[in-house]
């Protein structure tokens, strides 16, 4: 066999061509030239496509930084309901971003890139600011309503995170109890500084929940170290309800563990009535979110949804009420 390899001096990629000696002799000189030309074109096309991907990846962080500076990120809100009566009692704030080419960047990619480049804290500050502008009036007028904000272990490890959060809340008069902090399961979440920040947040009045519980580093030791207020059962377990998946058998164990540890429970990803009914017989109050109750929507749509629900509730008991 004859091999030829060419590597780019600029990009992390190489192209290797191979052909047997017998094939070279059998095809003749003209066909050999055609074969080489086609191979060169294919290799060049692959290299060009690779460079486009590499170029996009290389500028994604720059685009994200520009978006942060011009307040170009968007927040949407998904309703959180009390499963017992299906009433909206809160919302989860979710960051969304469309890059400069008009392509929606998946949230996990967005956060991972920001973490890798060291500016995820800027996204968190921006998100907190958006939440307080969008729902600040509601949070001030309705102490029972709460909004959940996702933060990373990197945020919690920053000494300035908790003071930043409390200053932002104080500026608009929102109580700490009105904002729940959600952290994703991660080995870095057990860092000493992170644990200290969680304690400070709880002392200030915030609830702290572990997001996507059951898919990462869950254990009794993990929960005891972090000393959180609640867990959010990941949608992987919710979607297994009504199927033969072994994941269904884990759900009762999670509920029992939460009961023993006196943890609040939020169930993610409820899309069917069967999934909702599964959790209703639980001995303790359970909150839930999912497309059955509402998709993530911009702040204006969410407030309209909430106002309509409350108007219907008031009308059912012959009262007149408004959403502040």
Report the sheet with the most strands, covering strand number, pairing sense and barrel closure: 8 strands, mixed, barrel
Number of helices: 11
**Span from first to last CA?**
78 Å
**What level of helicity do the residues show?**
40-55%
What structural class is derived from the secondary structure elements?
A: alpha/beta
Which spans have pLDDT < 50 for at least 5 consecutive residues?
A: 7-13, 50-57
CATH topology of the largest domain: TIM Barrel
CATH class of the largest domain: Alpha Beta
The mean pLDDT is 83
User: Which descriptor suits the 3D outline?
Assistant: globular
Helix-strand pattern, N to C? EEHEEEHHEHHEHEHEHHEHEH
Described by its quaternary structure, the protein is single chain
Biggest β-sheet: strands ordered side by side in the sheet? 3-4-6-7-8-9-10-11
Query: What is the CATH-assigned architecture of the largest domain?
Result: Alpha-Beta Barrel
Whole-number tally of structural domains? 2
Task: Calculate Rg over CA atoms.
Answer: 26 Å
Percentage of β-strand residues:
15-25%
CATH superfamily membership of the largest domain: EAL domain
The number of E-state strands comes to 11
